[in-house]
Amino acid sequence: MSRTRAPARLPATMQVLERGWLSSNSIVFDDGDAVSIVDTGYVSHAPMLAQLVETARRGRPLSRIVNTHLHSDHVGGNAELQARFRATIVIPPGLAAAVRQWDERRLNYAATGQRCARFDYDQLIDVDRPLRLGGQQWEVIGGGGHDPEMVLFYNHDERILVSADALWENGFGVIFPELEGGSGFAEQQAVLDRIGALSPRIVVPGHGAPFGDAGAALEVAYRRLEYLRSDPQRNARHAAKVLIKFWLLDVRRTTPEQMQRHFAHTDYLRLIHQRYFPRQDFAQMIDLLVAELIRAGAAEFAGGMLHNRN
To answer: What structural domains and CATH numbers belong to the chain?
Structure first.
């Protein structure tokens, strides 16, 4: 399901299409004679998004698709919207070559076991220049943490932050670089510090409803970050469960055998197994993580099938 949410103090030129957790939120900007959209959700929801955009554009062209980062749940509708509306696709510069070559390993679609319809870009975001959306100037801010190539957008006049997956009301996105042995916790700390210095009036996150109390969200995020960085296995365990849950959101139900086959071919789950669960075989690790999702009410076994629960 998707629903349109318009917080009271957002400018009239912004319309937030709040999605579920399989798809990121999308933000439609009224540019006057045309509209732009920031982020396009997951590929299986692309037809639904196209219908929402058709209504939101009110007969005007969809001129631009702008992506905060290239994870599958933020770019899955790019191809459909570009084909239907002939929109220009604008992406952050870091993985431009991978997009052009459609390198699913560098783009992390192979690593996560997720799908994305192939698209190409037309322009790159200039991180040193403001981006104009909805008649306003938006500073481009490096995201780090969740994705080294992610960008955020901040409008100083209205004090509105488009935070992507750097800050949600109750946390932030998985710190993927740490799974690969890279640095991500320090970068997540830095972006939270930057958000705190900006002191936004409204935060439009990549997932969940826009919210006004950035200070409270930052307190939650700092506590969460300290919890994860104090024991890196926690981050790995959390990441693995997020990837399993994401797949369940997509397929809705699966047999244990299908699930084992799917994740046996995903780089992140294999890496997590090798680095953090070496004393268990792969199937045991998956069973353990699924059991935790079931206890949390995020999944259930019934009739020999594993079912997603929202």
So the answer is: 3-229 (3.60.15.10), 233-308 (1.10.10)
